[in-house]
Design goal:
The protein is an alpha/beta fold. The chain has 2 domains: about 70 residues, Nucleotidyltransferase, domain 5 (2-Layer Sandwich); about 150 residues, Nucleotidyltransferase, domain 5, CATH 3.30.420. About 40% of the residues lie in helices and about 15% in strands. The strands form 3 sheets. The chain has a 5-stranded mixed β-sheet, sandwiched between helices. A two-stranded parallel sheet has the order 1-4. The longest helix has 22 residues. The radius of gyration is 18 Å and the shape is globular.
Length: about 250
């Protein structure tokens, strides 16, 4: 919180704070328990930030924030039905269906990182085996290969793409989506081999007439997507955007 306190002391030009945070969470971010931040379990992030900043704070899942950002200024501007996902330290997703960002019962809709892609695969931080996050996240790749993702061999980049394509094929078949937008340091760092493998696996598994034309592509906002998404979370919470998800 020391960084936030410095910002609050030196800048009074803000009216709202938008936050994208790893999940799961409860009560729209009132309590967060990111699987990749063990020190945060039922952490009261919303109240902590409001106490320091003195302005309204809105917290949402970081991948849902990504979906908002892409709908606002990125590739989602022309889409009404899409999945935006992060493949990085963790793996998460935000679902837009009929122009509406899905929240779910407690704000956790879209957790594509916990779709099972290897039934007897690696143990995930959630306690299950073979989750997409346990197979393709940065920490998972480093555990399996002994090397950071940036040094991954081409076979590892292709494998990650295959796993992502396998997971999102089920999501697209289930929800009749137009496109899948993927960001995060692992996906963007793996580049063309990752996306080509993802689309090949996706094509092999999406054979229905309504799903076979969908594609997996990189987020349009690139590395800026998380910050734009956090801003969209904030603006949306104070009514600076019209109904649905796309701000003016």
């Amino acid at each position: 919180m020391s960084l936030i306190e410095r910002v609050a002391e030196n800048d009074e030009s803000y009216d709202v704070c938008g936050v994208g945070c790893g999940g799961p969470m409860t009560g729209n971010g009132a309590s967060v328990s990111p699987l990749n931040i063990p020190a945060w379990r039922a952490f009261p992030l919303l109240k902590k930030l409001e106490d320091v900043l003195g302005v309204p704070v809105a917290v949402d899942n970081d991948a849902k924030a990504l979906a908002l950002g892409e709908a606002w200024y990125g590739a989602g501007r022309t889409l009404s039905n899409f999945l935006a996902m992060v493949v990085s330290t963790g793996v998460g997703g935000g679902l837009v269906v009929d122009g509406v960002l899905l929240d779910g019962n407690d704000g956790n809709a879209g957790h594509v990182g916990h779709v099972i892609v290897e039934p007897d695969g690696a143990l995930c931080g959630c306690g299950a085996h073979g989750c997409l996050e346990a197979e393709v996240s940065g920490p998972a790749i480093e555990r399996r290969t002994g090397r950071p993702p940036a040094e991954a061999e081409i076979s590892e980049r292709i494998r990650a793409g295959v796993m992502v394509g396998r997971a999102v094929a089920s999501v697209v078949n289930l929800l009749d989506l137009e496109q899948v937008l993927v960001g995060g340091s692992v996906a963007l760092g793996f580049g063309d081999p990752f996306f080509q493998a993802a689309n090949q696996e996706f094509a092999d598994r999406c054979r229905l007439d309504f799903s076979r034309d969908a594609r997996i592509s990189s987020v349009q906002l690139g590395e800026a997507a998380p910050l734009v998404g956090a801003a969209a979370v904030g603006f949306r919470s104070v009514g600076s955007a019209p109904q649905g998800i796309q701000p003016d």
